[in-house]
Amino acid sequence: MASEFEKNSSTTMYVEESAEVLENGQVQKNVDDDGREKRTGTVLTAGAHIITAVIGSGVLSLAWAMAQLGWVAGPIILLLFSFITYFTSTLLADCYRSPGPVTGKRNYSYTEAVRSHLGGIKVQLCGISQYGNLVGVTIGYTITASISMVAVVRSNCFHKKGHKASCTVSNYPYMIIFAVIQIILSQIPNFHKLSWLSILAAVMSFAYSLIGLGLSIAKVVGVGHHVRTSVTGTVVGVDVSASQKLWRCLQAIGDIAFAYAFSTILIEIQDTLRSPPAENKVMKKASLVGVFTTTLFYVLCGTIGYAAFGNNAPGNFLTGFGFYEPFWLIDFANVCIAIHLIGAYQVFCQPIYRFVEGLCSERWPDNKFITSQHGINIPGFGVYYVNYFRMLWRTAYVVVTAVIAMIFPFFNAILGLIGAASFYPLTVYFPIEMHIAQRKIPKYSFTWIWLQILSWACLIVSLVAAAGSIQGLTQDVKTYKPFKPQDHE
């Protein structure tokens, strides 16, 4: 693995991205300074990628997190991690080029940025953290999307047959449907062609967040509404035991910390931006837009969701309104979640595709199966270039992730552990270390010391959240029955 991560995986993978030299020696204007296809990304498209990656369906669990932490600690931790995420994302944006953030050589992936600035064993650690996290997220999204699809079927079943009807539905057919859709979408060549899907997914995330928010407000102002909330959240001896309170608080802090993370794909998003203006400046603006928008939705959904359900807030606050009425609105929200996760899956798997395809192109540059493009004329759309290796490998990846999702339906608990393991190195440690190396910040200077304090504090958060995830995972494993329909109410 070491040599794989050490190598520059920036091989030009697609024929259409190569620079074309004219007979007089001039280079065509439809390519960038590195000979790749002209980048067209803007603050809007980068912001859409970030929102698609960040908001996720994790927003639905924030009411539960607020219930564990209470009115004071909950909002403070939300705002604190939004600031940390934005700050470290600005550091990472400056690492897209090296040695200088404006005129240096482009780094096409996070791993390559770490190789350029730090090198050594840190490159392998970054690669394992980044790609392990991305694989985990795509498996988790397969499970979550199938849960939303099943929720629609069950809602309609209850509506037709009555609230006491047995409406147990298996997730597995819906995981297969999700996988088939992803196999088709995975033929989108690269991140540059993904903007329309990210914008659609971002709109869907706003839609279901607003539905949940609207239903929560309606519940809060409804006649006879009374739930218990408190400054410190769930009450020991009333809602939970002392040990449950501790573990749930740790898990809630971890959920909030990981809910903001998009560092795994930041460099890949930045590589879609056109310049001028300088990519790092545009990326910082996009990060501000993404993190601000996300924080606004998180605070609203978390606090108003907590006000609606109190200390008994469910893990998914959409299910707290029941599968009953208004069934059509809950259905629409769950459809929006599924569509959003379809787009989010692609945002997270594209860096994996790029890494493997770049690696294979370097290893076997003369292999026609890996490198050849075959043009297919599609009426109304023009010529689409098919690469047989790309089609086969991406299909295999989607199938494998779907099978893992079927075998481990409690994978979201594992995902919490993966999030804990990757949050510190990818969101905090590497951006800070690369910033110190790039700016040549002296050891033990004031700036160096406070950056190290921030780094160590986030390491502690990751460790305690990992402990909470492991405890939750052991509880899930005790009740696990393979290939049995799961109840997600």
Automatic annotation (TrEMBL):
Taxonomic superkingdom: Eukaryota
Extent of the signal sequence: none
InterPro entries, per the entry: AA_transpt_TM
Pfam families recorded: Aa_trans
Transmembrane segments: 43-66, 72-96, 169-188, 194-218, 288-308, 328-348, 397-426, 446-468
Record key words, sorted: Amino-acid transport, Membrane, Transmembrane, Transmembrane helix, Transport
The protein, known as: Amino acid permease 6
Source organism (scientific name): Datura stramonium
Taxonomic path: Eukaryota, Viridiplantae, Streptophyta, Embryophyta, Tracheophyta
